[in-house]
Amino acid sequence: MSTQKFLFFISFFFFSFLSFSQQNQAVTVSGQVVEKSGQTIPFATIVIEKTGLSMISDENGKFIFNNVKPGKHTLKISAIGFSSFKKSIEVSDVSINIPVQLESELQELESVTVLGRTPTEKVNKQAYSVTAIDAKKLHNSTLDLSHALDRVSGVRNREAGGVGSRSELSINGFSGNQIKVFIDGVPMDNFGSSFQMNNIPINLADRVEVYKGVVPIWLGGDALGGAINIVTNSKPRTFVDASYSFGSFNTHRSSINAGYTAKSGFTTEINAFQNYSDNNYWVNVDVADLNTGAYFPNQRVRRFHDKYRNETVIVNIGVTGKKYADKLMIGFTGGENKADIQTGARMVSVFGEIYRRGSIVMPTLKYQVKDLFTKGLNVNVTGNYNFGFEQNVDTVFRRYNWFGDYKQYEGTGGERSRTLRKFYNNNGVATANATYTLNERHSFMINNTFNTFDRKESDELVPESLVYKQPKKTQKNVLGLGYKLDYNEKWSTSLFLKDYSLKTTYSRSYNPSGNAGDIAYQKYVDNTSTTGYGAATSYYIKRNLQVKASFEKSYRLPTPEEIFGNVNDNLEGNLALKPETSNNFNIGASYQTSFNVKNALSFDVNLLHRNATDFIRPTLNNNQTMNTNVNQGKVTNYGIDGEVRYSYSNRFTAGFNATYQNIRNMTEYEPNQNYVSPFYKDRIPNMPFLFGNADATVFFNNLWKKGNNLSVGYNLLYVHTYYLSWPSMGSKDSKLEIPQQFSHDLNAVYTLANGKYNIAFECKNFLDNKLYDNFSLQKPSRAFYIKLRYYFSKSNN
Fold first, then answer.
1. Angle at 167 between CA 163 and CA 169, to 5 degrees
2. Over the chain, what is the mean pLDDT?
3. Looking at 172-307, which runs of residues are DSSP E strands?
4. Of 747, 722, 748, whose CA–CA distance to 736 is shortest?
5. How far apart are CA 593 and CA 545, in angstroms?
6. 698 forms bridges with which residues in the sheet?
7. Quick one: 222 exposed, middle or buried, by C-beta within 10 A (0-12, 13-18, 19+)?
8. Measured CA distances, 277 to 281, 334, 789, 790 (Å)
């Protein structure tokens, strides 16, 4: 076994062994902190007065003190936005459990239920610029995770087409790999095409956290412009959540999430989902006759070669609630996908036979333990390794047009480049995170994330080709150190430092003799290292008025796909890519108020500045059939995003958000040029700069029968016109632009038996407007969907 793979797994067994050495504690004081509604309150401060014992509750509001001395004590619990709680307790020789319920300090809001997309308050109280979606309120919709995020201010989901198409998220002007995606704090760097944001059902998540610009230290890894953390429900419970939806373009989606936790702590979980669609929606394109050359502009035709399917299953088995491990789970993620490729990077290229497929074969380990060696030291270790493959298939020597006509050619060839190229990326991720809470004011954190990548390629059409035998390896490590000061219930500040390193192994071809056809390869090893840092602070001016500010000197190392390419995603590699860096600033404020008892208003605003160097942005390759990435010397962005939301009791909610970002090319002199770039101070092309959402939902409670509820909702997405290429290029009439877009969605959800049975109807893009994203690729026309869902849960608290 190689040294890297050994280190990859050894951390888990090391911490497992050490945790067994903890002494059994005789008497404990434990409990859980909740709101009046029953929702848990994470990260509350718990103190046993005059004993020196204090701690912070976990993400589920739970806490436990070991070896509490017998006698009478006073327990004090406090959390930002809630009134302090004190309770006298008497400790004898028997462990005790104390339920704690905190009252909101905003008494005038007690009778108001704020519904819809309002960010989860507990997450928003962090010092970082963060928005959280309560995913549970979207579980009856047919949304996947990426489309749910499309409704958050500052966030755009940009995709190449319909179900399963290539997609990327943009946060405040940074997009794609500049945004890091996590599941329960574990990077999704190596999950492959069978497990991506736009094929994961929203039901997998409990909430989704969006960190804008500055990424907290406990989310390890490199990110330039923010992070997405998908948080699943990790509470011990027995439950079943099953759903099936059917809709336009022969689209089928189903998912099942189930879990069982025994009183002994034995736990098993399964998450499975599938997606299928013909994706034969209507598009408007120019078509040329393949034989006569006759030109037919602006034809409305159906896509005819865009089918997509994927199946994925995640299984975990282990124990929870043990002295040696709060959670110890061994798991496996398996899945596959197949996607027809209808177009190139732009719709002027059309294909009829090319397809890609891939798989994920990934064992996983998760280990969590609290109070390791000493009170307040919590450790979390994870590891996974993906043995799956990706393949691009192009073996039919034809040329297609958008009418579905084709011209067959003699001999061997392909529509783009004849290939059966298959590659195994053999990539893994190991994370180790430790936090130490010294007391109620001071806490420390260390996080290390290690990634390994070793691509092995082959093509049975050219089995002896030296091209596929060349090394394509990377090893990336990000080490973070952090400190947090909670001075009082109003003020919180975090400081952090990150060390980045990247080792890349590759080869370049050369001609050793100078004779035609004589090709050899020279191996190269590049090493890159750098250091970043940042801070975040939050202060409550009033009980319902919070201000926050954050800064990070962030770095983002090129990904293996950006360096080596990925034919399956129409991506050409660039070995010359350099790391990109940015100074990210955020200043934000949030305010909540109410009037006439049942009316609530909330306001959130965020000002941002990004100053990036060696900015990695997508562009078209020389023949405009594939994407590639290049470094843009310097890019700046000044922007603002915000949201306003109104709620009336539990009957109605409405809100809107808007984002403006002024992303400019500030590279005055391009390499090897002694004159000012013609694109200096231009807006970065192919990037929306003004967009927003609006929504409204009406609730009819206890309709026809108690426990049966109906909601009827509307959502609007707006994207302002933006240029496809540099604004300074060409004349006004010749510029390619992506036009202004409006997308209108309607939905109705009827729940029975307090949510046990659910049925939802949706109409997306009901005005059948033309919708576009990257490089003018059209997205689906009007579509209708129905979803059936069954949910049962039994708490194991």
1. 130
2. 85
3. 174-175, 179-183, 186-187, 207-212, 226-231, 237-247, 251-261, 266-277, 282-288, 295-302
4. 722
5. 9
6. 652, 712
7. buried
8. 10, 21, 20, 23
Render pLDDT for 163-203 as a digit per residue (tens, 0 to 9): 988 888 888 878 878 888 898 888 888 888 878 888 888 88
CB-neighbour burial class of residue 92 (10 A; exposed 0-12, middle 13-18, buried 19+): exposed
81: left (phi over 0), alpha (psi -120 to 50) or beta: left
598 SS3 class: coil
pLDDT digits (tens, 9 = 90+) for 682-706: 998 888 899 999 999 999 988 888 8
Beta-bridge partner residues of 429 = 384, 451
Distance between CA 617 and CA 631 in Å, rounded? 7
Which helix (H) or strand (E) segment holds residue 560: the answer is helix 560-564
* Closest to 64 measured CA to CA, from 98, 91, 34: 98
Cβ atoms within 10 A of the Cβ of 487, count? 11
In angstroms, the CA 679 to CA 685 distance is 10
Give the angle subtended at the CA of 75 by the CAs of 73 and 76, to the nearest 5°: 145
Residue with tokens 């109104």: 646
In terms of Cα–Cα distance, which of 781, 672, 688 is closest to 739? 688
How would you classify the pairing of strands 473-486 and 442-454? Answer: antiparallel
Give the whole-angstrom CA distance, residue 730 versus residue 570: 27
Query: Residue with structure tokens 């006439």?
Result: 596
pLDDT at position 765: 94
123 with 55: CB under 8 angstroms?
A: no
Residue 426 and residue 456 in contact, taking contact as beta carbons nearer than 8 Å: yes
Report how far residue 321's alpha carbon sits from residue 257's, in angstroms, rounded to the nearest whole number.
21
Q: Which residues contact 497 (CB under 8 A, 6 or more apart)?
A: 480, 481, 482, 531, 532, 533
Sheet holding 28-35, edge to edge: 62-66, 28-35, 96-102
Concatenating the DSSP letter of every residue in 124-187 gives: HTSSS-EEEE-GGGGTTS--BHHHHHTTSTTEEEEESSSTT--EEEEETTEEGGGEEEEETTEE
Non-local (6+) Cβ contacts of 279 within 8 A are 161, 162, 163, 164, 165, 249, 303, 306, 307, 308, 342, 780
Burial code of 747-766, b = ≥16 C-beta within 10 A, e = fewer? bebbbeeebeebebbbbbbe
Helix (H, G, I), strand (E, B) or coil at 279: coil
Q: Please, are residues 101 and 79 in contact by the beta-carbon 8 Å criterion?
A: no
Q: Tell me how far the alpha carbon of residue 653 is from its chain's centroid.
A: 26
The three-class DSSP label of residue 758 is: strand
pTM, two decimal places: 0.80
The pair of three-digit structure tokens given for residue 560, joined into one six-digit string: 């293996």
Confidence of residue 15 (pLDDT cuts 50, 70, 90): very low
Tokens 């930002």: give the residue. 80
Q: Is 579 left (phi over 0), alpha (psi -120 to 50) or beta?
A: beta
CA distance 278 to 307: 4
d(CA 299, CA 301): 6
CA dist 462 to 355, 391, 457, 458, 563, Å?
A: 19, 15, 11, 8, 23
Q: What is the rounded distance in angstroms from the CA atom of residue 744 to the CA atom of residue 714?
A: 7
Tokens (6 digits) for 355: 């397809």
| Predicted confidence (pLDDT) per residue in 46-101, tens digit | 888 888 787 777 767 788 888 788 888 888 887 755 677 888 888 887 788 888 88
111, pLDDT greater than 50: no
Which residue type occupies 357?
R
Closest to 635 measured CA to CA, from 320, 287, 173: 173
Q: What does the block give as tokens for 458?
A: 């082959």
Contact 563, 578 (CB under 8 A): no
Q: How far is CA 287 from CA 312, 547, 734, in A?
A: 38, 55, 20
